[in-house]
Write a structure and sequence with these properties.
The protein is mostly helical. The chain is 72% helix and 5% strand.
């Protein structure tokens, strides 16, 4: 060879910082990809086996709550507050709000807030975002969420016993009770695998 320049020379000094910056960007992108892959793997591992089935059942219960709240629980006639209309949880809270806001608040708390809180807590346990230390709170929420079914049954029994008017149960009562019982079963099974 002739008088050409050597090919193994170091790059000119002005490109070294550019190369270092590019290498740093590539390393950062690779690190981000590894973190994302790790997070995805952990998320998949959280919902495997029995947890996946419980999480799916819990999601079905969560979807069922708004349906149960607007479904007819009972039909009442000649009874103050309801006068022949189908009683839903929403209409019951609304009717009670006009005459007894405190009782309406309690019904809303027990029939709407507590079941949703328990469902969300179960979802967090299934995803392992809460530990087994949350189980006592889950038990309390479960008892409070079941209280509304008892109150509704008591209302129907008392109304039938008074002999004034009539109350007949409707499909929404069965749906609501079924959701509460399903949630109790999901909670029981969740405690067993926690």
């Amino acid at each position: 060879g002739g008088g050409g320049t050597a090919r193994n020379e170091a790059p000119p000094p002005e490109t070294v910082p550019q190369t270092a910056a590019r290498d740093a960007r590539v390393r950062e992108q690779e690190r981000i990809a590894r973190v994302r892959a790790s997070r995805m793997a952990r998320a998949r591992a959280r919902l495997t086996g029995p947890r996946a089935g419980l999480a799916a059942a819990n999601l079905a219960v969560l979807i069922g709550w708004p349906i149960a709240w607007s479904a007819p629980l009972a039909t009442a006639g000649l009874i103050p507050y309801f006068g022949g209309d189908a009683i839903t949880i929403f209409s019951g809270v609304e009717a009670l709000w006009e005459n007894d806001p405190a009782l309406a608040g309690l019904v809303a708390l027990f029939a709407i807030a507590m079941p949703v809180a328990k469902t969300v807590m179960l979802a967090l346990l299934h995803a392992r975002l809460l530990t087994h230390r949350a189980l006592p709170a889950l038990d309390i929420l479960g008892k409070l969420a079941m209280a509304d079914v008892f109150l509704l049954a008591l209302f129907i029994v008392l109304t039938k016993g008074v002999g004034v008017g009539y109350v007949t149960s409707a499909w929404g009562l069965w749906l609501f009770t079924g959701l509460v019982l399903a949630q109790m079963a999901i909670g029981y099974l969740t405690r067993r695998i926690a």
